[in-house]
Amino acid sequence: MEKLQYPVGRFTYQPYNEAQRIVYIDTIRQLPQHLRTEADGLTATQLQQAYRPGGWTARQVIHHMADSHMNAYIRFKLILTEDNPTIKPYNEKAWAELNDTKDTPLEASLRILEGLHERWVNLLESIPSEAWARTGFHPEQQRTISLMEFLALYEWHCRHHLAHISLVAKG
């Protein structure tokens, strides 16, 4: 079950260098195209299929990625423009159960991710090296997190959920 829940492994943060940061940004840049490729190959039945027992359906995962990455983009902008802002958590499980997640065609979230990731990558590539140490306070984790760690987390998030969609596609 662990391998189905965390197909790319659990997130762990290790401080990284500028070369790794470029790789992380590239993963974020490429996610919309990789996700579209995977999603276009799914049948209507597969869209309603969970990637693991008790997990979200492929449809919920794709809409969750749009929700999550919109929040991530805002978190980055807050951290860049405010001193150690408190990051607003949200109940992602409850969001995944709302009707817009269940009823909206995937195309809406795929388009959101394409536009959002274009802006997000433009922002990420413009951040000066010293600004990557800027932080935000995460109340759920009760700790301060740097932009560098948030970048690593969302790079992992891209790979994590893309792997969930691949699990459904492979049956």
Describe the overall structure.
The chain has helices spanning 2-5, 18-40, 44-47, 58-81, 92-96, 99-103, 106-126, 147-170, and strands at 135-138, 143-146. The longest helix is centred in the middle third of the chain and has 24 residues, at 58-81. It has 8 helices and 2 strands; from the N terminus they run αααααααββα. The protein has a single domain (16-170), classed as Up-down Bundle (Four Helix Bundle (Hemerythrin (Met), subunit A)), CATH 1.20.120.450. The chain has a two-stranded antiparallel sheet.
What key phrases describe this protein's structure?
globular, Four Helix Bundle (Hemerythrin (Met), subunit A), 171 residues, mainly alpha, 8 helices, single chain, two-stranded antiparallel ribbon
Concise account of the structure shown:
The protein is mainly α and 171 residues long. It has helices spanning 2-5, 18-40, 44-47, 58-81, 92-96, 99-103, 106-126, 147-170, and strands at 135-138, 143-146. The protein has a two-stranded antiparallel ribbon.
- What's the structural domain tally? 1
- What is the succession of H and E elements? HHHHHHHEEH
CATH architecture: Up-down Bundle
Overall 3D geometry?
globular
Just give the CATH class.
Mainly Alpha
Counting H and I runs of at least 4 residues, what is the number of helices? 8
CATH fold-level assignment:
Four Helix Bundle (Hemerythrin (Met), subunit A)
Question: What's the CATH superfamily, by name?
Answer: dinb family like domain
As a percent range, the share of helical residues equals: 55-70%
Strand runs, count: 2
The spatial strand order of the largest sheet comes to 1-2
What is the percentage of strand-forming residues? under 5%
* Mean model confidence by pLDDT: 96
Q: Gyration radius, to the nearest Å?
A: 16 Å
Structural class: mainly alpha
User: Spans with pLDDT under 50 lasting ≥5 residues?
Assistant: none
